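User: Here's a protein and a ligand (magnesium ion). What would the complex look like?
Assistant: Let me lay out the input and then the predicted complex.
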Amino acid sequence: MTLFGALATALWAMLPAYVPNNAAVLAGGGRPIDGGRTWNGRRVLGDGKTWRGTAAGTLAGLALALALNLVVEPAGAALGVDLPAFPLLAGLGLALGAMAGDIGASFLKRRTGRERGAAFPGLDQLDFVIGALALAALFAPDWTLSTFTPPVLVAVLIATPVLHVVTNGIAYALGLKDEPW
Ligand code: CTP
Ligand code: MG
């Protein structure tokens, strides 16, 4: 596979995992998942992880996966890359996993004394990748193995943090997010 092919496949296959966090920012609010509960004097997750944001993010990622399926042929032909279509379970795993990874990161942030909105460099950029790949592998193991080949996986791990920093910077500049991470 060419470098371009690996990069294009990585970005395409991860799109259903990239969108949930941004959709959650737009839709977030309402009841926090932890219901305000604390553990050792600190919130379990914090007010930044809500049911509404999580549901909206998951649905947005799944909807995007299904929408991408409609254009996978022309998009692949235009790029000259054999792009993967998303089985329903793969799309769901990527979207729900991205949200779960982000929630897991908040759990770790609270346990390490970081308040809501505090940065955790490294974790902030990769939490949702780990969650998305893990749940995709669980829900659609064959698809995940054949899609995320070693070169594609390397491209995901390099391109995602770069994209994450850029999109969050834009969301911050637009006033959609309180912090640029
Ligand atoms: N959000 C949400 N539900 C989620 C994830 C995000 O409602 N599962 C919304 C919240 O309004 C949140 C915003 O998106 O404040 C930004 O998300 P994020 O940066 O992940 O949360 P933080 O508020 O920074 O909190 P944390 O420190 O726990 O990451
Ligand atoms: Mg944050």
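Summary: The radius of gyration is 16 Å.
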